[in-house]
Fold:
Amino acid sequence: MKKNVIIGQSGGPTAVINGSLYGVACEALKSADFDHVYGMENGIEGFLNDKFIDMKELKDNGDLELIKTTPSSYLGSCRFKLPESLSDKVYPELFEKFAKQNIGYFFYIGGNDSMDTVSKLSRYAAQIGSDIRILGLPKTIDNDLVETDHTPGFASAAKYVATTVREIAIDASVYDNKKSVTIVEIMGRHAGWLAASSVLARKFEGDNPALIYLPEVAFDPDAFISSVETALETIPNLVVCISEGINDGQGTFICELASDVGVDTFGHKMLTGSGKYLENLVKNRIGVKVRSVELNVSQRCSSSCLSKTDLDEAIASGAFAVQSALAGKTGLMVAFDRISSQPYQMECALKDVNMICNREKTVPLDWITKDGSDIGDAFITYASPLIMGDVAVPKKDGLPHFAYRK
Amino acid sequence: MKKNVIIGQSGGPTAVINGSLYGVACEALKSADFDHVYGMENGIEGFLNDKFIDMKELKDNGDLELIKTTPSSYLGSCRFKLPESLSDKVYPELFEKFAKQNIGYFFYIGGNDSMDTVSKLSRYAAQIGSDIRILGLPKTIDNDLVETDHTPGFASAAKYVATTVREIAIDASVYDNKKSVTIVEIMGRHAGWLAASSVLARKFEGDNPALIYLPEVAFDPDAFISSVETALETIPNLVVCISEGINDGQGTFICELASDVGVDTFGHKMLTGSGKYLENLVKNRIGVKVRSVELNVSQRCSSSCLSKTDLDEAIASGAFAVQSALAGKTGLMVAFDRISSQPYQMECALKDVNMICNREKTVPLDWITKDGSDIGDAFITYASPLIMGDVAVPKKDGLPHFAYRK
Structure:
């Protein structure tokens, strides 16, 4: 008897997390090896409440093609941490539900918290002798997963950041009769990959953004003010890019100098306001016109700057996951191995999910230059090929036509 | 002896203000009626400092074609208010400079402050018997100029707002297990045209954004909280759109309830933080998860959501201005008369600039529904045709390729 497939999405959305879903669903739906292909609604949390849909219906009604270019998690997401103890009653409960739905293949698309789920489920499966094949697919705009060259979702977010910073820089330059500082706050709690991508916005040597600060290097407000003053001498309308997570190197985020912060369900500090804090600092210490711009959620949900490379790779990771599961693989995450940067060549690989979950890959320190205020060529060589190629998003009445669950 | 043409840009940038520049420059450069075609750097203020460039050089080096899809003011802008008294010495100074450069035609692209410049220069020209023809071209994302159906720049900004709000709404909907409120703050000081455009993001009846607030109707925080509570009953992940300029109807902006504000050089209050204020209000009064997103400068400088209708009209307004000047017209602004909405037909017209400057067109009150918390069908009929059609922006290395002054 053929087994069924189930796919889930977890963690924060990206512009191509549905590309991965599309990749898994298309590959599984065209295979004769499976019976049904299900999608969990709101990840493992929804599945525990018996909420799932049949992906074939989406193929039949045309939504599957639309999903490909729909940002955010079509199936819905969750932030649900499975208990550390595999003796918890949720594990037999879940595997009874898998058995009831005749699930033989479980695919989970997410970041390192989601890989924690893949790790626990595959370890529990091994413990009870279940033959369900459990695989993770990477997803995060933060690009902070280890054991992979990069993650789907990062490149489109990086392209959004670089495009938007380039536009903000020309917007900032229209009045040349007075000096100004624009501070752009970019997502990235502990890893500065996205803020680093703002360097791609430079059109020529000496162009904006002139200063870029990442969480990887301790942020010194005095050195920052000094660098801004120096930069203003040659660039009257200065653009500075910062990660939301810039910190003093001792565990205190710069935004915490200004205001209280909360924590999310995983205990992560919820950040806001590093840009606003620096805006006030520049206003008080230098006295020039200053504004801060928070790029906010569009970094992860804009469909306007989809990288074709990113979307193609997300879809490929899905197809590769299905093929790997059919070949008997389990407890692994699909990863990207870079063969070369020029010309850009990438291939899919499988890595032990236990080596990935709950770890974070930060920007190498030797890719950060000028005492932590700029990004070097090694990053540009790394990131440039990832943002190549555009994707035409279907339009209706002048606006992007997205799939959504009815 | 042939006369020269000079073009300037003034006020805040838009995504298609360079489309108007392109329209004037192309039409003037292909005509045998003119000698040089100049562009003022940083508007009238730069011209007073003898800063201008020869537009033919841009045609020759290929930048003119790139300008068409480059957002923000290529020539640079200014916020320079000419003195009220036409006896001020700046007027003879300017006209001496016009004479020195053999200027016969003066085109100024801007909003109502810029039309004030056109008004004063044309009145002074009449007073001294100058035959320089002085015409204004409309530009503003705010869409607040009177005597014209709409203004170039509004439609692309509206398309950006509707696209981004639709994306934010699907981003907000991925976690369905708890209620949330997302407040989107949209540009618009006294006129709510852009915030109203967020209604175009709705994919179906009852979709987000469920509540929309404009400056045209007095904002009542208690009624707002009550509407949010009611809406949350059917829409667990609620998106609310507000104009930055929502106010109590008595002259106090909502953001002023939270913090001090400054004024710009025209004495306009500089706003920030209405969204942040309402975020805190919802947190304290309702206690659900809440965030605020400020769409910020990308509304006026993003090239990602260019409306082809908008860009075509901006270019057409430039060509029409040149033809009108050649026909002897002066002291007028190019305006758009709508012939019909379905099918959409527009034609260029000329209006007395004195009737336009320093006035503001707000959203008609009968287009605002549900006690000021929603937008009616009349607005949708008005705005829908304006956002139609996409524009392919030239790309280089995966990013938009913009023209810039070297």
Notes: Chain B has a mean pLDDT of 94. Residues 82 and 117 of chain B are 6 Å apart (CA to CA). The radius of gyration of chain B is 22 Å. The domain at 156-301 of chain B is CATH 3.40.50.460 (Rossmann fold).
